[in-house]
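Notes from the 1:1 (GR / supervisor)

We went over the backlog. Supervisor wanted to see one worked example end to end before approving the batch request, so GR pasted a single chain during the call. The sequence is below; no edits were made to it. Supervisor asked that the structure be written out right there so they could see what the output format looks like.
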Amino acid sequence: MTEPTAFDVALFGEAMLLLVADRPGPLENAEAFHKRTAGAETNVAIGLSRLGLKVGWASRLGTDSMGRYLIATMKAEDIDCSHVICDPAQRTGFQFKGRVTDGSDPPVEYHRKGSAASHMGPADVDEAWLRSARHLHATGVFPAISDTSLQAALKTMDVMRAAGRTISFDTNLRPTLWPSTDTMRHWINELASRADWVLPGIEEGLLLTGHTQPEDVASFYRERGAKLVVVKLGSEGAYYDSDVAGTGRIEGFPVKEVVDTVGAGDGFAAGVVSALLEGKSVPEAVRRGAWIGARAVQVLGDTEGLPTRAELEEAGL
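Structure output shown during the call:
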């Protein structure tokens, strides 16, 4: 008998306070910053929740002002935070992000080593709570922050596979968090092999598979068990290879001005995952992902461009 589900999507990962510089140029020259939230998993969680899905997020935060701000923000987005532990003995991670004017990736400076979330491990995975979701969205960031978080990430995927739930995985590479490129490549590909839907970027695909063409990157993961692979191609859209819809390309959406590229991939993931869970076709799902990704690069923070359900419907997606 299939267990009843309370959530559409569960996510495990670190939230960080984000301080975005108020002017272009080197971070050290900035004199004021805008306060936002950051974190691959939390960006996707917010994106999914705004589209009307029921979302649960598990993590660890400190009880400092940053942790209080982050959990209040997530609760305000109607995300279940019942499995977020606020630990007075640990501190919340944060990051600085610069401003650029040429459409390139902005400089980012992380302060997350030894953070509360990095102390998460397999014991933090409440299996019954996790199975109460019909889908798990995972990324390559959470397993990178510590050895114990890697073990926790593996456990979440094993629990959901055993329960017959679907799993999406965004490779989301963070090379500076891993001890070596080889270690990163091994574990990211191991995690991807446990997922149903794999979402690499084309440059990530080159690093992870050695292939330069999206068709070959997709085949690499399809041969390892993925039912769907969507290779993100930036402004050119995306290429997909799936069990049910074959292969194809979706064009990117035009963007007047690229303000901030960070968060575009998370918006893309929220679009694809939400659409698939709603029963949309693969091309429809990838098109929704491309539209949200295009919105994301036109705003300053990671989540301001994530649409509401009303905005999605107005766009016909």
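Supervisor's comment: The first helix runs from residue 40 to 50.
Batch request approved.
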